[in-house]
C-alpha cells in the first residue's frame, strides 16, 4: 500500500471516529495534518483567480521572523580588463521584512452521510474544501496588501498611457490587477482612430493585455471595496508583496453551539508589503 493511500485511510478513520487518532498521519495540536500530496489540485477552476501565482512565496518553518530582501534595481555590470582593480558597483539596497504567521480557520462541509459511508473518500473531500478556502483566503489577503499601494487617480485613456509611460519603473514586470467593473470600462475604451485599448491575447486568463501588459480581472469587492468600484493595482505584484507560507494545513473536530461537533480546517500564512515602489493603486475616472 502506498504512503499516500495510507495517509488517506488514516484521515478517513480520524474523521469517522471523531478525532480518534491512529498511525498513518501526523497529528498537530490535537488535529490531523493534511499532507501537501493530498492538497495537490484535483481539478482546475477556471472561474477562480489565484493571486498566489503572481506573488513571491517564501516557505517558513517558524511562526515569526525576519526575511532579508534586496530591492530590484536598474543596476548593471561594467566591463573590466583582466587583472584590473574591481570597479565600483551600485550598492544593493537591503531591508528586512518582519512576518508573523496567522492561523485561518474554516468549516469543512463533511456531512454525517459521508462519514457513515464506508466507501466515501472523506480525505478527498477535505482536501478539496481546504484547497478552495486556502486559495480564496490567500487571494483576499494578497488583494488587501495590494490595496495599500500608493493611490493614484487616472483619468481616461490618456491617464492610462501616461501611467504606463512615466509613472511606473520599466524594469518591473508590470501588470494590471483590476476590478471587473474597471475591466468592462477599459474594454469599451477606444482611441481617436477607433482602436480599442485592450489587446487580444489568448495566452493569458483574461484574454486581454494593455500595451503589452497582462490584465488580471478580480471581483469588485476583492480588489475594491464594493460593486462598481473602478479600481485596481498596477505594477509588479511579485516584487510588491511576499506571502510567507507555513505550509501546514490541518483539520480538527471543534465544538459548535448549534451543530455540536464540526470539522474545521486550518491554514497558516502571512502576507507583507516588500517594495513600495513596485506598483500603485489606481482609481479610474472616465474622461468627459
TrEMBL record:
Compartment(s): Virion
Coiled coil: none
InterPro entries recorded: Phage_capsid, Phage_capsid-like_C
Superkingdom of source: Bacteria
Location of the Phage capsid-like C-terminal domain: 46-278
The protein's name in its UniProt record: Major capsid protein
Organism lineage string: Bacteria, Bacillati, Bacillota, Bacilli, Bacillales
